[in-house]
Write a structure and sequence with these properties.
The complex is a heterodimer of chains A (277) and B (119).
Chain A (H helix, E strand, L loop, with lengths): L3 H19 L3 H14 L4 H18 L2 H17 L4 H13 L3 H14 L4 H23 L2 H13 L4 H9 L10 E8 L4 E6 L5 H21 L5 E8 L2 E8 L2 E8 L4 H16 L1
Helix pairs in contact in A: 1-2, 1-3, 2-3, 3-4, 4-5, 5-6, 5-7, 6-7, 7-8
Chain B lengths: L3 H9 L4 E8 L4 E6 L5 H19 L7 E8 L2 E7 L3 E8 L4 H18 L4
Antiparallel strand pairs in B: 1-2, 1-5, 3-4, 4-5
Helix pairs in contact in B: 1-3
The chains are: A alpha+beta (277), B alpha+beta (119).
Chain lengths: 277, 119
């Protein structure tokens, strides 16, 4: 929880950054905002503002990395304040642009749950339905003219689907783990690509949760000069959760307590060797 | 032994452990014994960020708090141990023996709790 006096100081960084952004001093605005985030890492408004500043950067140069960073900031803001309307709306738009429709749909569901019938959320929902129809139509007819919009969609995807296929096909390695509850392969934003579920765990929810933890960890490791994030093991009172970076995807392995960690680590190593070969 | 700094110094004597610190869940440093070139304030802020992300995320699937989180980077291991209202953060070399590390982490967390200064 942020103490009231901390909030006051955090709001100074917010206001200063917003003022700089309003006069198009985006670089300075981002520096002030980043400094605010380092000092007040639990303030959702600073993350939301950072996302908007990065959108401005994207609008100038159309560099996709800004969209990815903006999306991370909006997700972070939402994890701290799930009622943040603007973050959810903008994140939904970015997901649609990236053709990550299930994730966009999740954002829209949040919006509609908070404000039923919201016209902007409804418009985005209709847009997703149209896009899905276009894709289905293209798949059925397989005509070149209809594939053109699909090519555009594929370009926006982080890595081509055939690369995901190789990651998915090697997942069988983990089925032998004693005490396995779930193996989950998701994209960077938690959209489930493949799931081996031996329990009643909610794969979609786990996907989103561990992609959030993954991105926060990745961000922390790179921003503190400690190298590049490779993997993590989160131990809760009920289970162990392995999080592994595999290209542009995330592998999550959920196991019960009292498992053979060395055996699991060997399997992860084997999996990484298989997909790299 | 009741001094937090002494407990951390003792932990740092273990082979391949390069530093340790205790921070509040908000990222304020309580005690720091880091022996590598890293911005401690920045590290504590980002560690608090990770802790918050895990806590918020796990609340959606489990009611109980997390116990620990070990991150492997290509250069270091970064370990988090949840000790209630604070975190024990440990940086070690990648090649550290994991059994030794686990034992030392639990032992140190226990000693820190017993100081009664982290309530």
């Amino acid at each position: 929880m942020i103490k009231p006096e901390s909030k006051k100081v955090a709001s100074i960084y917010f206001k200063a950054s917003k003022a700089l952004s309003s006069i198009a001093e985006y670089e300075l605005a981002q520096k002030v905002c980043d400094r605010g985030i380092v000092l007040f890492p639990n303030d959702p408004n600073l993350y939301s503002l950072r996302g908007n500043i990065l959108i401005n950067f994207y609008n100038v140069g159309k560099e996709k990395q800004y969209l990815s960073e903006a999306l991370y900031s909006f997700e972070k803001s939402l994890s701290l304040n799930p009622d943040d309307y603007m973050s959810a709306l903008t994140a939904a738009k970015i997901y649609i642009k990236r053709a990550a429709f299930p994730k966009a749909r999740q954002m829209i569901d949040i919006l509609l749950a908070n404000s039923p019938g919201d016209p902007k959320a409804t418009a985005l929902l209709n847009l997703i339905k149209e896009k899905n129809k276009e894709i289905e139509k293209a798949k059925t007819e397989k005509s070149q003219s209809l594939f053109e919009p699909l090519k555009e969609v594929e370009e926006q995807t982080a890595i081509p689907s055939e690369n995901y296929d190789s990651l998915v096909s090697s997942l069988h390695i983990f089925k032998k783990i004693q005490g396995l509850e779930m193996v989950l392969l998701t994209d960077m934003y938690g959209v489930v690509l493949k799931c081996v579920n031996k329990s009643k765990l909610d794969a979609n929810r786990y996907g989103i949760i561990f992609s959030n933890i993954f991105r926060t960890s990745q961000n922390a490791i790179s921003n503190t000069g400690l190298g590049t994030f490779k993997s993590g093991m989160l131990t809760s009172q009920e289970r162990h959760n392995y999080i592994v970076a595999v290209g542009n995807a995330i592998l999550t392995i959920v196991v019960k307590q009292d498992v053979d960690h060395k055996a699991i680590e060997k399997m992860i190593h084997l999996y990484l060797s298989q997909i790299s070969s | 032994m009741t001094n937090i700094s002494q407990i951390l110094q003792s932990l740092n004597k273990i082979n391949k452990i390069k530093g340790s610190m205790v921070i509040t869940t908000e990222g304020i440093i309580i005690s720091s014994e880091i022996n590598i070139d890293v911005d401690k304030d920045r590290l504590s802020a980002f560690c608090s960020d990770i802790g918050l992300s895990i806590t918020n995320s796990l609340n959606k699937i489990e009611s109980k708090p997390f116990l620990r989180y070990i991150i492997n980077s290509d250069q270091w291991k970064l370990c988090f141990i949840n000790i209630g209202k604070s975190y024990l953060i440990v940086i070690s070399e990648v090649g550290i023996d994991i059994t030794t590390l686990n034992v030392e982490l639990y032992r140190t967390a226990d000693l820190l709790k017993k100081t009664g200064r982290l309530e």
